[in-house]
Amino acid sequence: MAEIVLFHHVCGLTSGVRALAEDWRTAGHVVHTPDLYGGRVFDTIEAGAAFAHGPDGPDQDALADAAVAGLSARLVYCGISAGGMQAQRLAQTRPGAAAAVLLECCIPLTGEWAFGPWPDGVPVQIHGMEADAFFAGEGDLDAAREIVATVPDAELFLYPGDGHLFEDRSLPSYDAEAAALLNVRILEFLDQVG
């Protein structure tokens, strides 16, 4: 059994994110789903981004830190898209991480956005669609390839297509076939690290 914290994507803690967490609970894992938007959910990436980066947007770093403050150090940090940034930051900076799962997001290990080196002994899975404009087109895929090339326990899984948030069954971008394969791979990984 693994203990996981799953950070939602830019549209918020949607029913699709909750359903993914429930899949993992059903498989025997403990899953925490912090809501960094205070209950707000958006139908589009654009609307979610406008809120997240607007004047009333939440301090996501502070909220993510608070969400894990009372939890075990040995967590699997998982995040979808924008939530992947929180998952990666905490996996790299909060001592004791068990593993990380980054969905459609990856930050380089060096440069302006970097959180520092990848911690020794922390395995990571990275998932994304090969033609996703956000993942493949904005440098995340390159960052993922860098991590796989330098971190011993790192895996990158690419799925055919160009959808973003393809694992969220509550959104139009949902791809049932890719999401099912993603879930199988994540559950196998969680069984190994748990």
From TrEMBL:
It comes from the Bacteria. Residues 4-193 form the Dienelactone hydrolase domain. This is Dienelactone hydrolase domain-containing protein. It comes from Microlunatus phosphovorus (strain ATCC 700054 / DSM 10555 / JCM 9379 / NBRC 101784 / NCIMB 13414 / VKM Ac-1990 / NM-1). Pfam families: DLH (PF01738). InterPro entries: AB_hydrolase_fold (IPR029058), Dienelactn_hydro (IPR002925), Dienelactone_hydrolase-like (IPR051049). One of its GO terms (molecular function) is hydrolase activity.
